[in-house]
Amino acid sequence: MGKPPTLFLFGQMPWIAADTKLFGVLLDPLSLLMLAVTVIIGLLTAVFSIDYLSDKNREHPVTSGWMRYYLWLLFFIFSMVGLALSPNLLQFLIFWELTTICSAALISFYDDEKSYRAGFKALLMTHAPGLFFVVGLALVFVYTGTFDFAAIGKLPDTVKASVLILLLLAGWAKSAQGPFYTWIPEAMVAPTPVSAYLHAAAMVKAGAFLIARVFCSGFEVSTGIGLLTAVVAVLTMYIGLLFYFLQDDLKKLLAYSTITNVGYIFLGLGIGAMGPVVGLRGGLLHLLCHAFAKTILFLTVGVISYCTGTRLMSRLSGLARGSPFLAFAFIVGFLSVTGIPPFSCFWSKFYIFVAAFALNSALGTVLGLLVLGESVGAFIWFILVTQRVFFGKAGSEMTLVIPGLFKWVLGVLILLALLSPLFGIPLLEGVG
Amino acid sequence: MVIVELFVATVFFGIVLTGLSARSRKLCGAIGVLTVAVITAILFFVAFRVFTVGPQRLPEPVFAVPSLGASLSISVDPLGGLFFILIGLISFLGTLYSYRYMEIYPRQSLARFYHCLLLFIAGMVGVVAVTDMFFFFAFWEFMTLSSYFLVIYEMEDPVSLRAGFKYFIMTHVGTIAMFIGAILLQSQVGSFAFSRLREAMAGMIETHPVQLSIILGLFLLGFGTKAGMYPVGTWLPDAHPAAPSGISAILSGVMIKMGVYGFLRLFFFLLPFSSLSVAYGIIIAAFGTLSLLMGTLSALMQHDSKRLLAFHSIGQIGYILLGIGTGLAFLRTNPVLSAVATMAAIYHVVNHAAFKGLLFLNAGSILYKTGTRDLNQLGGLYSVMPVTAWATLIASLSIAGMPPFNGFASKWLIYQSTILGGVQSPLFIFFGLLAVFISSVTLASFVKFFSSSFGGAMGKTLEAGLRPGFDVPLSMRFSQNVLALLCLLLGIFPWVPLHFILSSLSGSEYGAALPQSMHALGGSWLGLNLMMGGVEGSGVWLPVVGVVVLGICLLLAFVISRSGKAGTRTVPVWTCGEVYEPDEVRYRAGSFYLPFVSRFEAMVSFGLPSIHLKRPDRIYRGLDFDQLIYYPFVDWFIRLSQNFRRTHLGIPQAYMLFQVLGIALVGAAILWLSLT
Question: Where in B486-598 does DSSP place strands (E)?
């Protein structure tokens, strides 16, 4: 914050004739942001999993396979940290692909036909567009001789545009944007802590993080690319919103909400590329704020399925009577995600709206209004869901017995969700 | 200043302590009331300093967001001080009332109630205290959020949930409209501070008047939704009955006035005067007249006591908006008239808080005592609740605009300003006449309210279901009586509140044209001596004289009856000599005004058409990229691969043929490359 980024590089590969060392650690506001999300939520997820993956889980009793789970989870945390600290595109790609493997392994944890199909689909749909990333990487190296993010700016115009589009395609697939969204709803067969961490807080943000790194490297991104990013983001938001209304499964609803919110991040980045720097900051702030908020929601749904055996909205009602704390956690989560002050995503969404209107053009106004429409639509739906599941006459389940560990984790997350804007806003003041 | 820290600490400790003492309902309630008392004391102290010393502001903003150009700067000017007094008083009385009232919710958590209430009060204070549009907006939404949880306090009841949902969504949409307006203004100057937005508006009057007009319209929508303006205030009749009565009093008494505060701040303090102000003045006055018409007429048909009162809130807000609109329209052409109109509107804000708060507390007392809100089932409650009955009578007379109570004074000023202003622009005479007519409709409605609940004879079923004890508990009676006394005093000494209201308009668009003292309105605490249009005594109202005369007459009547030694007999209430059960022959609330109800029912129906959307299956099938693209692609690829398997013939000669062909192909390629 205010200091120049810390960079520490080492290592060479004999068959790549590059000027600078290839691997290393880069500490700047962006990497700090991603680290905060990855490491803190990773820790809390791992702790949550201790009690979640047991035979007392009414939805999915687990009696074996813990070693496999924690191996892949910790390996994933390692990969994400490496990705967050990557100083150039090469290291980024390597850790990117490692996260893909971890995700596929964790999705298929429950060892049945559906899980394997879902894991394989996720693997295929995130890896194949990753090949675009490889091509983009190769183009950058061939033309400039380095793998740095800023090197993209030194490319001739058409090549630069192609590289950016290739990277965008890879990022969209990883983050389940645009037409690539279909792997995430099916990936909800994973254990809920995995869904919370990988597919809400960390891995899906990796695609957005790639684009953020590229757009924030200090070179001029063409307006067309910014516009493309923004338009695809808005389309994704509306696709996500449309699918909200069909869902009975709470996790699938949250999955579509994740898609929509990562769309906000891309929108912020896209608008930021078109001019107003507050858009870049808004997108990144949304990355931070949404991560904590969505994790609360997912883990609350996890506790519900642990205690009651179901996560279908049609079977749940009046849960606030059974556990006021759970209702409180879910309400904080949903208010945070939909952006009601003083909760976290209000600040980041406000940044993005200000950016949209700061474009001072008809396009900006249209984008802003479309996004506001999505925000209101999501808010309406979530309030109805909350009223359906938590309020109203209590169903057959009376007092829910919740293990203390779950309450601690949720409590810490609520606190972090409330405080994240205080951390994020000053951190991002210097970005862009 | 340490005041802000003290305030925050009070709210924080209130939340913690009520949370810890949640098991013991009495202790929890006592802590809640004590916390609100401390908050009220702080608010009164700040208001006192504002009116004696001058506007109070924090030198440094608490928190700044440079990327947005927003900073949490706290500053309380006399208008803010006035609203502080209002918030403090009504919140305290409502909370004191709730101390015993909450007994009707034995199964709901009391800690949740006090937490939401404290956050709600904090939200309202925040709205009034900030001078930055971004944080204004943040506190505004926060206020809506905390009051939502109070409206759905009875969380198992689907009616409450629907009411809360409608409330939150409608105010949220209104707020988003405001939000768009605020951001459009901010994009001109890059900052959300009120002073900078004022510059933005001044600039836009020259360059983009149409855009400014749209922005003002968006703000009108937003503030109007919160204030309960027709047609966007239709959430009121559902939300106010659903909340506990102490909260209904605060919602109707103070929270909807936040919308009015928004109107005042925007149109009188931020918007530089231009033809837009005049246009919007007329628009606001028109919406005000529409609200007072539709709200009060609909109230005439209600038989749920709190729903009736909520419709009247819409109506009375109409009066306030009419006053504001008149003030805005005549700002430059007749400053004194305009000042009178605006001051009348703010005076009506204060009065409405007093009598509507009192009315909601009364409806709550009836609910507490009898267990029902349905006026059709009530009757004869005077015998068991005499003190509440007198308070209700005072409140009913106040809202109907009966002298010497406070409603009369503010309504009289509104009539004066609209009708005298109508000399210049006849539209306002029309508005004024409608306002006078609706005043009589209000009286009719409250005759119904009072007589069907307190008058007549009590039915057997009602009598059996009464909560024992004299009237309602002391804390509830105390709140009611304080408000009733206030209604009386504000009416007898109108000059006192008007003096403060006049000083609250300093710093506004009136500028130097604001009458420097109460000279234009008579200079004594005995009454008002209006001087409008240059005519001294164009309206004189000396309530003290009236009260003194009334007092003398009452004294005379008392002396005469005593000296004539007239005996009194206590007899049961006369029910037309029949010996039927009161339940059978009582004139029910629903029977009032039947010819009118049957004629106008369709016109003032407030129900929104229920929207049934068919699920657009084609869109969903179009978005199912799995079925459309990916699976077909995978299937095609698999078929392609399977077809390719056919090349594995298993015949060695075929493979040798492939090798020969391959070598030939490679040789040809090398030849071609070496030649080019």
Answer: 528-532, 535-541
